[in-house]
Amino acid sequence: MTSHTADDGLKARLSRQGEETLGRIAQELLESPLVSGALSRAFEAREKAAAAQEVAMGALNLPSAGDLERLTRRVRSVSQRLEGVEDALDRIDERVGSLGGGAALQQRLASIEGQLSALAGQVAEVAAQLAAQPASAAAAAAPSEAPAGVEEELVATVLETPDVGGAEVRIAPEVRRATRTRAAAARKRAARRS
After folding, report:
1. Do 167 and 130 touch, CB atoms closer than 8 A?
2. How many angstroms from the chain centroid is the CA of residue 23?
3. Are 130 and 157 in contact (CB under 8 A)?
4. Residues 155-165: pLDDT tens digits?
5. Closest Cα to residue 170, out of 158, 178, 181?
6. Which residues of 114-137 are buried (b: 16+ CB within 10 A; e: fewer)?
7. What is the pLDDT of residues 54-101, one digit of tens each?
8. Residues 186, 149: contact at Cβ < 8 Å?
9. Which residues on adjacent β-strands are paired with residue 168?
10. Phi, psi of 165 (to 5 degrees)
11. Side-chain half-sphere of 127: how many Cα atoms within 13 Å?
12. What are the φ and ψ backbone dihedral angles of 156, each rounded to 5 degrees?
């Protein structure tokens, strides 16, 4: 037992002395101007060789290690973004599924179509009423009867509504009327001038 502890103590002492000796040698080598100059020249040569390699590979249209590293980073970035998009799509899919799926969506669309049909009917009634107005009403609103200095706007009349998707609107150029806001603005301008 004593020989075993003595061997351990001897090994520890030798390893300590060896480490100290190696440390001193390394420190003396680094402090030596000859060795430090050789190391700095070696590192400079390595950098120059790497730059020359990149230029040569670029001339041959081959990717360098730096190009491959940048490409790898970009691919990782795109991959992370795609994962984010996939997660967002999964969340959207879950929300659509929680809304009751396609049945609720179809019911909502049918409701909207019904409302659009009702609006189309009302627009058709208004068009019929406008078409039934006597021609005297159009003559009464002629531009010659409008007060002087009042701007006018064209009146659009709805003549046909062929379907819910669109309405045909025609503008009658003979029918004009003065708007209240434009008439009020004209009166204010006239008052400021006088």
Report:
1. no
2. 59
3. yes
4. 444 444 444 44
5. 158
6. eeeeeebeeeeeebeeeeeeeeee
7. 888 888 888 877 888 999 999 999 999 999 999 999 998 888 777 666
8. yes
9. 160
10. -70, -15
11. 16
12. -95, 135
Tell me how far apart the alpha carbons of residues 52 and 81 are, in angstroms, rounded to a whole number.
Answer: 35
- Would you say 156 and 127 are in contact if contact means Cβ atoms under 8 Å apart? no
Listing DSSP states for 108-156 in one string gives HHHHHHHHHHHHHHHHHHHHHHHHHS-HHHHHHT-GGGSPTT--EEEEE
Which pair of tokens denotes residue 177? Answer: 């009327």
Which uninterrupted H or E stretch holds 157?
strand 152-163
Query: What does the alpha-carbon distance between residue 59 and residue 53 come to, in Å, rounded to a whole number?
Result: 10
Region for residue 101 given its phi and psi (left: phi exceeds 0; alpha: psi -120 to 50; beta: otherwise): left
Would you say the C-alpha torsion 9, 12, 18, 20 has a positive or negative sign? negative
Angle between helical axes of 2-31 and 33-59 (0-180°, round to 10): 70
pTM, entire model: 0.31
Residue located via tokens 């795609």: 82
Q: Coil, strand, or helix at residue 30?
A: helix
